[in-house]
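Final paragraph of the annual report: two paired records, presented back to back.
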Amino acid sequence: MTAGGAGDGASAPARVPLSGMWCMALAVLCFSLMAVCVKLLGQGMPAHEKIFVRTAVTIPVLLWMLRGSGLSPLGNNRRLLLARGALGFVGMLAYFASLSALPLGNAILLTGCSPIFAALFAQRYLGERAGRAAWTASAICLLGVALVAHPEPAAPLAASLIAFASAIVNGATYTVVRATARTEHPLVVVLALVLVSLPVTAVMCAWHWVWPHGSQWWLLAGMTVASIAAQIFMTVGMQRETASRATSMFFLGVVLAMVWGQWLGDPPLTWTVLTGAALIVGSIVGPAFVRRTVAAVSTR
C-alpha cells in the first residue's frame, strides 16, 4: 500500500474517554471550589436559597444539553431517578447547612465519610462485595468522626451531626447513582436532582428570602458553575467505577478542604482534628489499597 493510500484510508484516532477515577478527581476539585463559594457566602444567606439559585440556573443548561444530545429528560427508570433526586436534595441541604456553621475542614471531613456508607449500601443493594474490610473501615471511620466532631466553640456538636447525617444520605445517593448506570444517561441523572430541588426550595424561599448583594452574586455564579461540573463529573465517574472505588477519591477533598480552610481563616488545626482526619482518610483509602494489592497478587 502506498503512502497516499495509507493516508486516504487513515481515520482520526479515537478519542479515549476519561477514566472513572479521573472524572471523580475532577468532581472532587469542583466540589471543593463550590464549598469555598458556599463558605464565603456565609450564614447570612440560608442554605435553601443557595440551592434554589444553583438549581434555577442549572435546569435550563441541562435541558439544553439534553436536547442537543437527543435525550429524554424523564429518563427510563423514573422511580430510581426520583430516589436519586430526593436523597441528593436532603444530603445537599445538610451539606450546605454544615458548611455555613462549621470550619471548612471539619465540614468536609465529616461529610467525606460518605464512601464508607456508599460501600455498605452498595453491598446490600447492588451486590458489590465489600467484605470485612468495609466493616473494619467503618469502625475506624467512626472513631475519626468522634474526634473531629468533638464539640468546640468553632464547631458545635449539632452542626457536626448535620454534616455526618449528610455523609450517610450521600452514601445512599452514590449507590443510587451507581444503579442508574444500567438505564440512564449521566445528564438525566443530574437533572433528577435539580427537578426535585427546585420546587422544594422555591416553597422554602417563599417563606425566607435574602437578596444577594455585591460580591455575593459572583460567589453564587461560581458556586453554580462548579456544582454543575462536579455533578456531571461525579455521575460519569460513579457510572464507570464501582461505588466503593469511585468514592474513595473523595479523600482528596479532605486535603483540599484543609488547604482552603486555612486560607479562609479557619481555626488552626488541633492534634485531635488531625488524628481524626488521618483515621477518616485511612478508613477510606485503606480498603481500596488492600483490594488492589490482593488483585495484583492473585494475577501473578
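The closing record of the year follows.
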Amino acid sequence: MAQVSPAPGEDSSPALALVNSLLLAPDGSDLDLIATPDEAARWLADRSLGTGVLVREADLVRLAELRAAVRDLFIARSAARVPDDHSVDVVNAAAATTSRTPFVVWSPDGPRREWATSMPNSVDDSLAQIAADAIDVLCGDRAATIRRCEAHGCVRLFLREHARRRWCCTTCGDRVRAARHYRLQQAQRHN
C-alpha cells in the first residue's frame, strides 16, 4: 500500500480518510490504497474501525460504493449543490446497519434507554461507523470546511483548518509553487 501523508481532517474523520484512499496516479490512472481484502482490513484496523475484520471481495465492492457516495456528498456540500440521490441512499443504508444495542438504566427517576456500541466486528459495523461519521461531518460544523485540493492532478479532499489553506498537504503546495516559479522563469527567459 502506498504511503500518503494524511490530509487535514483525516485523523478525526474516517469518512474523509476513506474518500482519500482513492488517488490519482501520475499516469492518470486510479491508485486505490485499499484495493485488496488485506489492505482494506489493515486500513480499517489502523483507524479503529475493526480489528480482525474479515474483508471479502464483495465487501471491497461495498466499501468502494460507500467511498464514492461519501465523496459525492462531500463535494456536493463544498460546492453548494444537491448530491445524487443514490449517494444519499448508500450512506443512509450503511449507517442503518450499526450494531448499537439498547439497554435499560434504572435510576431513582425511573428507567431510561441508553445505547451501547460494540467494537466493530464485521464489515457492516465498520461501514456503519464510516457512514455515521460522514453524516456527522455533513450535518455539523465541519461541513463548511470541506474543500477540494487545488493542486493540479490531486483528487483529495480536506477539512480546511486555516482560512488561507488551499492544498491537502505540503507536497501539493510545493508542487504548485514550483510550477508557478518555473512558469515565471520561462516567461522571463522569453522576454
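Strands lie at 22-24, 30-32, 100-107, 110-117, 146-148, 157-159. This concludes the annual technical report; the extension proposal builds directly on these records.
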